[in-house]
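Do me a favour: review this protein, sequence plus structure tokens, and tell me how the chain folds. Record follows.
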Amino acid sequence: MVDDPHKNILVIKLGAFGDIVLALGPFAAIRQHHPDAKITLLTTAAFEAFLEPSNYFDAIWIDTRPALWQVPKWLELKSRLRQGGFSRVYDMQTSDRSSWYFRLFGSRYSPEWSGIARGCSHPHANPDRDFMHSIERQDEQLAMAGISSVPPADLSWVTADTKRFDLADRFVLLIPGGAPHRLAKRWPVKRYAALAHGLADQGIQPVILGSASEAPLAQDIVSTCSLARDLCGQTALADIAVLARDAVGAVGNDTGPIHMIAAANCPTVVLFSAASDPALTEPRGAEVEVFRRDNLAELSVEAVAAALRLR
């Protein structure tokens, strides 16, 4: 076996939540391809605690994503990148921002670079890359950089004490929220409430996940179904993965937590409107059912309940 010339590697992945989950397979592939290298991840603060136990990375750097006018922060980032001594960079973000980081290295410090930055050594040279699902796009990008095998996401390393929530033995996860500026991606909360009521009638506890700002949605559901449990704002990323392992099923909109739940191989029903395309962003897992309606208000409770294959 030829010795790996790369002893110091940088991986860039800034977010968002669902994109981080979809990048877990590529993270594992990079580690497997460079088993003896020091691998540093450049990401945002929201994902540091979650990814630290994965053993994919030897160090995690936090990117504050400076604005254009924050010149001192850009100079600080440039200095840190140049002093990192990286011989290869895997830019899994492939955004305008992360591509600009390629320029920060300058010609003197320039490492090999897998991404889409103009002039990089290992470009993802597929003009149709923007029309590929994130999983296939990342797999192809890594293949062009010499990594031919990318495993599916593995969350077996994630641990969390979820007993503190004192949930029923059988529960279903509901994710009724999503980006506040993209309300068209949400199934009406009244439909979630009706679904929760039907689950409760079967002796199954509905458990509602989301951010603290989505607690009003959860309260709408709890007001209809007293058995439902509101955990909005109470779960770390690791909690979501562990809850998904224990849940008998899940239903959610196209939003970050549903990617984690699907990747944990929980039977998952994901609801898409015309506001997003499952061909590009659907969650991946062993048991994922996708519903798409241009207007999610047209999707019935009965159809979703029938698609939910509880384990």
Observations:
- Residues 163-307 form a domain with the Rossmann fold fold (CATH 3.40.50.2000).
- Residues 254 and 282 are 8 Å apart (CA to CA).
- The chain has two domains: 8-144, 163-307.
